[in-house]
Amino acid sequence: MADDAILAHGLTKNYGKLVAVDHVEMAVPRGSRFGLLGPNGAGKTTIIKMLTGLAPITEGTASVAGYDVARDPMNVKKRVGWVAAEVILDDDLSGWENLWLQAQLQRLSDWKGRAQQLLEYFELADRKKDKVGTYSTGMRKKMEIALALLHQPEVIFMDEPTIGLDPNVRRMLWGLITGVNREFDVTILLTSHYIEEADALCDRVAIIDHGKFVATGTPAELKSRVKADFVELETSEAVTEERLAAIAGVSNVRSQGNTWILRVSSAEEVLPRLFHALKTDGIRRINVEKPSLESVFIDITGKRLDQGSGDVQDYRKFYMNLRRARQ
Amino acid sequence: MSTQNATGGLAFPVESVERTELRGGQFQAFYGLLARELIKTFRNPFVIVITLVQPFMWLAFFGGLLSQLPTGELDTFLLHAPPGTSYLSFLLPGVLSTGMLSIGMFGSMSTIQDKRFGFMKRILITPTSKATVYLAKAIGSAVRGLVQIPVMLVAGIAFGVHLQGTPLMWAAWILGLVFLGTGFSAFFLAVTASSTDWQTPGVVSNFITMPLMFASGAMFPSSIYPGWMKDIAAVNPVGYSAQLSRSVLTYGQFTGSDLTYLGYLALFAFVMILAGTVVAAKYLKAE
């Protein structure tokens, strides 16, 4: 379809025995902002690597900006921009020199006017002669977006665009990302493990876990799917699953040690009963999750998104496997 | 081009850009990457100072020590040399040649740095081929290493070496060194193309430098070598470059065999670049 900036069928990536991305179906309309939401190690970055031609596709097909990624990677690369999670610039070169290099790599001839205007747009013009190593984090991030826009890409891939940034810079970037999407007429695919970010920035979100898309839709659609609240509860050891399940309004109980996740019809109604039932036992901590992308994730995977793949051990193992498989 | 704001407000006008879709599209990327290597290298004052000082130290320590040998010993040592030839003037062309051995180390280290800091991904998400990246690194590394030629020559003159040869002969031996440096740089970068380990360039450098330096006739006349070392010297391009340079600089001559040496060096550079490009296109890693 010509109207889709990104199209993927059965997109799969294996690193040895490890399936990093598992038969993903994806259609991103031109001009939209599409988010891949999932914990670290879910396969988000691997999807970007395949779509930009950095990593070969194990199975399935993908096209970006109308070109097949596997068959015609050079034409894809002329039409995509990339903003890395870790901010990748040449720190020894000035802002202007970084733009110059990007222009050479993208084979542009008449780029200086646009480069200057981009610097002005991102309020970097007065620092363009300074080495980018001396820029603040926010400036470096802006510089990266300017580089990504220089060759008029049709699609920009942003990998965890605000990871590790303080809240002010994050807000500033959210404004910039929506602005860039509108004013430069560019499709944006971003990955995030921040619920609020996907909610605030994306027209459509795919929730990804262990390399699979577990749900796709607009943030509103996804939220309306979960017609329940979640109560997260940390208790003393005396509490059993049976006692929690017996409370009226609790439809599902999942546990991780002394932490329980209860799916309830309405938190407002269930909480008083819960307190009553457990009043002699210690409730150490309680947290209510109203319908949100987080609760969608909890509903589907049975765990919180910001906890990664459940426990840290699991997570390390995944990365170790991944690294080993790549060597 | 001015883009339209969705809200109908005043949009920010940004020019559109033209693409140079010449046949040599990769050439522009090559030029950009090569210029980046050189800018980064020579912007560092420390690098410049060390590059300039090191040859002086080499000649001062090594040459100074060996020139203390009794004159009779030296004459037997420097076979066929015109009377009055100092060990320094014998050594200088050799040191210039062995200096090309580890020339690829700079490019190799900068390649590994680009992989580690993710910059290689930035490069490879543009329509730039791996072969282009490899060639820019290899040539950049060679150019950087070739800077030592004029520095060495000045150092040699400062230590009292009388340089022989006509301008044409000079062009020939310098060309030989360029071939040698390019060949080793290409070899070095191909060998380390898939590596992401900081230690690799140093290890590879040590591994190739020692045997090829001693089995080259660059530092001692190859006539004194044992048989097996002569066999290595017979295929070692460093030796051919040393002989060619010595012919011109020390003896002021350019013979038919010197022409053969030059041809051998050109072939060496060509084969290394060709093989390296093939290897790098397959094995150069993004991270």
Notes on the protein architecture:
The complex is a heterodimer of chains A (327) and B (287). Chain A contains twelve helices and 14 strands. Chain A is an alpha/beta fold and 327 residues long. The longest helix of chain A has 17 residues. About 2% of the residues of chain A have low confidence. At the A-B interface, helix 2, helix 3 and helix 4 of A face helix 1 and helix 6 of B.
Structural class of chain B: mainly alpha
Task: Kindly state the percentage of residues in helix of chain B.
Answer: 55-70%
Question: Which class of secondary structure composition applies to the elements of chain A?
Answer: alpha/beta
SSE order of chain B, as H and E?
Answer: HHHHHHHHHHHHH
State the separation between the terminal residues of chain A, measured CA to CA: 37 Å
The average pLDDT value of chain B, as a whole number, equals: 84
Produce a short descriptive summary:
The complex is a heterodimer of chains A (327) and B (287). Chain A is α/β, with parallel strands linked by helices.
Break the fold down into its secondary structure elements and pairings.
The complex is a heterodimer of chains A (327) and B (287).
Chain A: E1 4-15, E2 18-29, E3 33-37, H1 44-51, E4 59-64, E5 67-68, H2 73-77, E6 80-83, H3 95-105, H4 112-121, H5 137-149, E7 155-159, H6 167-183, E8 187-192, H7 195-201, E9 204-209, E10 212-217, H8 219-225, E11 229-235, H9 241-245, E12 250-256, E13 259-264, H10 267-277, E14 283-289, H11 293-301, H12 312-326
Parallel strand pairs in A: 3-8, 3-9, 6-7, 7-8
Antiparallel strand pairs in A: 1-2, 1-4, 4-5, 9-10, 11-13, 11-14, 12-13
Chain B: H1 25-42, H2 45-66, H3 71-77, H4 87-98, H5 104-116, H6 119-124, H7 130-146, H8 148-158, H9 167-191, H10 199-214, H11 227-235, H12 237-249, H13 256-283
